[in-house]
Amino acid sequence: MLMKSQSKRLTVSYVDIIGDELKMVDEHIKATLLSKQKVLEAALKELLEAGGKRLRPALVLLSGKFGKYDRKKLIPLAAAVEILHMATLVHDDIIDDSKIRRGRPTVQSRWGKDIAVFTGDFLFAKTFLLLAHSTTFENMRGLSKVVKAICEGEIAQYQSRYDKHVTVRQYLKRIGRKTALLFALSCYIGAHESECPSKVVRCLREFGFNFGMAFQITDDLLDFTGDPAKIGKPVGSDFVQGVYTLPLIYAINSSYRDEVIKLLDKESYTPEDVKELIELVRASGGIEYSKNLAKSYLKRAGEFIDGLAPIPAKAALENLLDGLIDRSY
């Protein structure tokens, strides 16, 4: 249902509204990921214990609140979206040779790349098996397209490693594929399966996409501004591995270009090099530019849900927007 804009906002956390359902989602995930293979079972157990924000399943459930909300229908779908996300993280860590995620050893660093590949494949298989019993063929197609786009985004990121000519446009296209589309799909599935009017479904999907773009930009910002203890990895990890994100892309094209390029051309980086490069990015305005662009995506996301019914779920979505820029992990 679409309503006139409400000027007064409620401060509501999504946990206040769907906390019980999110616990059910976690239980559904655990039950879905049982395996008789001991090594796989151990790897999955450690993966689940690492936790996570559960933002994507939260968006499935919150979007469903705008229609005929049926948690029995939505919980398996929310679980499927989160399992898919987990699969992409496992494979992403293989590609990036990441040792730590969320403050814990990654599957590939703990069990080796072969087991990590099998684990990611197992998670993908479980995603589609869960969806086959829970949703329409149309949504299966939508999810398949998102998986395809995520793969293309990861390939684009891999091919652009150490590329000092990567543009802001290329970066935005990359994060749209690898991150924002899954947020958009989460909102779409929740709204569509709850029989929301087509205009509401579209508004929520666009909210998810723009929120996802802002989410990834702020995530990339944490590589320059975050506390390693909170983000679960050393600062500068992305550019050390050749992944150049928005703050650095901006710095490369600023008046600090020569100094930045000189550091990037080094065969290896000392802790002092990493610190100096982060300071150059900050001095160039790359941090501020990235924050402002993230804010513009958040503003756009808010505009898409501005006319939705003033229910607690809307307040929770708005609260997500308000807290994103200043997040520390």
Automatic annotation (TrEMBL):
Domain of life: Bacteria
Source organism: Caldicoprobacter faecalis
Cofactor list: Mg(2+)
Name of the protein: Heptaprenyl diphosphate synthase
Xref: Gene3D superfamilies: Farnesyl Diphosphate Synthase
Keyword terms of this UniProt record: Magnesium, Metal-binding, Transferase
Keyword Magnesium in annotation: yes
InterPro entries assigned to the protein according to its UniProt record, in alphabetical order: Isoprenoid_synthase_dom_sf, Polyprenyl_synt, Polyprenyl_synt_CS
A GO MF label: metal ion binding
Family, as annotated: Belongs to the FPP/GGPP synthase family.
Any one biological process term the GO annotation gives: isoprenoid biosynthetic process
Pfam families (UniProt xref): polyprenyl_synt (PF00348)
